[in-house]
Design goal:
- This protein has 237 residues and is of the alpha/beta class.
- The chain has a single domain, classed as Alpha/Beta hydrolase fold, catalytic domain (Rossmann fold, 3-Layer(aba) Sandwich).
- It is built from eight helices and eight strands.
- An eight-stranded mixed beta sheet has the order 1-2-4-3-5-6-7-8, with helices on both faces.
- Helix 2 packs across helix 3, helix 3 packs across helix 6 and helix 4 packs antiparallel against helix 5.
Length: 237
């Protein structure tokens, strides 16, 4: 698929401590906008493919380095959840962006945070979550050091212990949520997304893909396009 957008971002900068890349559509406004949230051990560069697809589909898109990753100078902490809302507000304030259609998309840890953000932030209209992690797995990863990030382990572990993603999925409704998960995911069982879908109710959609692994879904061009088209349509209702 040939995209009508440049390979690199049209804007690079730092917003409230978060180094970011931003893409803008080659079409007239108004535009919806997408905050793209990477997982543990990743960075803003990793999801440039989805950001380019967003721009080619008429969305403004921003990727950024989460706390404890990439060019960020701080450590991962509970404040990471608020970063999504701050990035959403940053996009909503831009000329041409429709502030009623700012969404979040995340994978793994990013999917976990995207669901929580959509459930708690009025400025986030919907979410795409890919193989979203759960509290138990994240806490295990913090304790055994398998999560590749600089983190305030004690504060983050305590925060995770107080949250339940299933409750967030239920609270997110009636905002649209699409969950994508590979059946062969070796880190997060696909049944977790099934449970989240059930909690989210009628305004959610679930796509379970045969085979694959934890990272296979997030970079599949066809699945990226399917999720974005579904969310675009859902925002019109």
């Amino acid at each position: 698929m040939r995209l009508r957008t440049p390979e690199g971002p049209g804007e690079r900068g730092v917003h409230m401590g978060r180094p970011y890349w931003l893409w803008q559509p080659p079409f007239p406004p108004p535009w919806p906008a997408m905050v793209i949230v990477h997982g543990a051990g990743s960075g803003k560069e990793s999801h440039a493919d989805f950001a380019r697809l967003c721009a080619a589909s008429g969305w403004v898109a921003i990727t950024y380095d989460q706390r404890g990753h990439g060019e960020s100078e701080d450590v991962m902490s509970p404040a990471a959840l608020g970063d999504i809302g701050r990035m959403a507000a940053f996009l909503a304030a831009r000329d041409g962006v429709d502030p009623r259609r700012v969404c979040a998309r995340g994978s793994s840890l990013g999917g976990y945070l995207a669901i929580h953000a959509a459930a708690t932030e009025d400025g986030i209209a919907g979410a795409i979550a890919i193989c979203p992690a759960g509290e138990d797995g994240l806490r295990r990863g913090l304790r055994d050091g398998s999560l590749e990030m600089r983190a305030d382990v004690e504060a983050l572990d305590a925060w995770l212990a107080e949250h339940d993603l299933r409750e967030a999925a239920a609270a997110l409704a009636p905002k649209p949520l699409i969950l994508l998960h590979a059946q062969g995911d070796e880190r997060v069982p696909y049944t977790w997304s099934e449970e989240l879908h059930e909690r989210a109710g009628a305004t959610s959609r679930l796509l379970i893909l045969p085979g694959g692994h934890h990272r296979s879904v997030q970079h599949d061009p066809e699945l990226q396009a399917t999720a974005l088209k579904w969310l675009t349509k859902a925002l019109r209702h």
